[in-house]
Amino acid sequence: xxxxxxxxxxxxxxxxxxxxxxxxxxxxxxxxxxxxxxxxxxxxxxxxxxxxxxxxxxxxxxxxxxxxxxxxxxxxxxxxxxxxxxxxxxxxxxxxxxxxxxxxxxxxxxxxxxxxxxxxxxxxxxxxxxxxxxxxxxxxxxxxxxxxxxxxxxxxxxxxxxxxxxxxxxxxxxxxxxxxxxxxxxxxxxxxxxxxxxxxxxxxxxxxxxxxxxxxxxxxxxxxxxxxx
Length: 229
Ligand code: CA
Known about the structure:
This protein is α/β, with parallel strands linked by helices. It folds into two domains: about 10-130, Rossmann fold, CATH 3.40.50; about 135-225, Orthogonal Bundle (Arc Repressor Mutant, subunit A). About 40% of the residues lie in helices and about 20% in strands. The chain is built from eight helices and twelve strands. The strands form three sheets. A five-stranded parallel sheet has the order 2-1-3-4-5, with helices on both faces. It has a four-stranded antiparallel sheet with strand order 6-7-8-9, with helices on one face. A three-stranded antiparallel sheet has the order 10-12-11. Helix 3 links the parallel strand 3 (about 55-60) and strand 4 (about 80-85). It starts with 8 loop residues before the first strand and ends with a strand. The mean pLDDT is about 85. The structure holds calcium ion (CA). Calcium ion binds near residues 15, 16, 60 and 61.
């Protein structure tokens, strides 16, 4: 189930359908769009694809648990507010023992009204409090992976989401040469058999946009790298 509304999209990752639907009902009433996932891996994919304004994350999920999802988001540079939902004290102990940027948590059973109120609170709290910039540069190109902004020299450049992810992946590891298969797997999440031509196309688009400031280097017979510096 997915809908969009004025206050932005909230992703609800919860495998108990009754709880998810009740949460969705109250969030919708509050003016949020809601997207529900019941599996952990699907939830992480949805976070990356839909870029919700907040995530309600059940800890006990199949595929990948809520704590791992949040850790992965933070490693990705994604600081979207996360409200954890837990059914068990031992899950809560584990959560509180980690510094993974949990914005708040609720223990089951909770009232859906309370959940909607907490989502509003984490959003208010996080407004205007992005973590410091995390930038990488090579040649004359610079990316801020937290704010997803890119500059070629002094000029800010607009990239598609995939172009950005590809460029950031290369700039994070300057000088390292990646095969097309590795890039497909890391950036697109495809298996190597999906066809590597798409990597070449995106590299060409990046070069066109970055112009003289492009740090992208073709390593003949192997793949691509970003020049260091
Ligand atoms: Ca669960």
